[in-house]
């Protein structure tokens, strides 16, 4: 239901043009998905992961969140090392990837030019994100990947009348808010990874600590 609504969404003129008419990368001889990208995984899981938006030649090409690009390679191999996915690779919609006890979604469901969404586009799309969060009845922890995902979750908390003024984005910080722990990380973009801002070992250890928290071990 909610996913049908997302896939059929035409609220943002700029993004419709971009997702449908972005020039195909030479190395991909295939039809692009070119529609909004839904969340993926177990909506009854205890962990929610929020990313920014589909990449033009990643999710916008393959039709699945964090699939078929460099950010996906880093993220999913790290999640696998922490026991949060069943395999280290995310290449295509039929590759058998499973998110264990967790669900992953995006602050913005359509690929934006240069990975830079407009405020009005994030606001349009927040309805879907907020519905996804409210659907997760077993939620214990939320991991936000980057500042835009963080801001989107803060906007959700405001709708729940949470006082958010002392909650600041900081890499590997966490906050306990109404029985749900919010974890913050830099986005696993090639720029953050290649410059060493986000290091694989540190990120995996952070994910392991999230999993331990969910399982009640810390
Ligand atoms: S970004 Fe969200 S609100 Fe905008 S067109 Fe895509 S799905 Fe709809």
UniProtKB/TrEMBL annotation:
Q: What is this protein called in UniProt?
A: Type-5 uracil-DNA glycosylase
In this chain the Uracil-DNA glycosylase-like domain maps to 38-207
Family indicated by similarity = Belongs to the uracil-DNA glycosylase (UDG) superfamily. Type 5 (UDGb) family.
Q: Does the keyword Iron apply?
A: yes
Q: Which InterPro entries match?
A: UDG_Type-4/5, UdgB-like, Uracil-DNA_glycosylase-like, Uracil-DNA_glycosylase-like_sf
Q: Does the keyword Iron apply?
A: yes
* Organism expressing this protein natively: Picrophilus torridus (strain ATCC 700027 / DSM 9790 / JCM 10055 / NBRC 100828 / KAW 2/3)
Q: Which UniProt keywords apply?
A: 4Fe-4S, DNA damage, DNA repair, Hydrolase, Iron, Iron-sulfur, Metal-binding
